[in-house]
Amino acid sequence: MSDIIHPKTTIGHVHLIVSNLERSVPFYTEIIGFRLLKQNQNEAVLTVDGVTPLAVLEEKADVVPKPPRTTGLYHVAILVPDRKSLAQSLLHLLQTGYPLQGASDHLFSEAVYLADPDGNGIEIYADRPMEKWEKTPNGEYKAVTEPLDIEDLLAQAGTEAWSGLPKQTRIGHIHLHVAHIDEAYDFYVQGLGFEPTIRMGMHALFVSAGGYHHHIGLNTWAGVGAPKPPVNAVGLRVFSIVLPDETERQKVAKRLQHIGASVRRNENSILTSDPFGNEIELIIQQ
């Protein structure tokens, strides 16, 4: 059995707990640019292509704010297909006047940051061509956080009216607050089988499948030893990892069991939890 997760593994969807669905749905559709796939009294499913769920918003009656300095979601990263799409999203955000939290150049990608009405972090980003990603002498990707050249980016927006996120958009990566990087390494590398791609001392680790810059970011910026948030707090309920077939999913499940991680099976998926309370669903590519 390979110790490395299949190179075609990707992030699937993210399921978020929100405090007010009436407030969150317009934000995610009118500000971010998702399309509403379906909705009931306490849950909305969002898409870009009219078929594939990319985000689920769930309102809980007893929801509480996520306490600061706890583990959980740092941000969910929405990957748009090209630089022009990022420029159009940025222009739309500027025109709406919605507050941004940052705009950065990471060498391998360009990104804009904001938060939803509950404080759930959101990154909208576009990758540079892979041949332009730089590596360090130890073989990891060179990662920086430089100011985004907003003027140059906006010059790519064109004159078309904004019409939401393009149909090729997907969830590119998930970035999480964790309590300890060594425990995160054990779970995400030794258990799930992702490969380390960027390490920042003992305060951040980025891992991926198939040579991507990162599918999952892990940091201790909420504090080493940070506690889990309450189970009814806003934030991340679960995110999915998409594997190419059942054989590959069973390999991951066996690795998780080998390190003593929880593995819970239902009819269509396998669920697990990292040591910091982050729930993960293993699903098969449809």
Automatic annotation (TrEMBL):
InterPro entries to which the protein is assigned, alphabetical: Glyas_Bleomycin-R_OHBP_Dase (IPR029068), Glyas_Fos-R_dOase_dom (IPR004360), VOC_core (IPR037523)
- Name this protein carries in UniProt: VOC domain-containing protein
> Which positions fall inside the VOC domain?
10-127, 170-285
**What species is given as this protein's source?**
Parageobacillus caldoxylosilyticus NBRC 107762
PROSITE patterns referenced in this protein's UniProt entry, alphabetically = VOC (PS51819)
Could you tell me which Pfam families the record lists for this protein? Answer: Glyoxalase
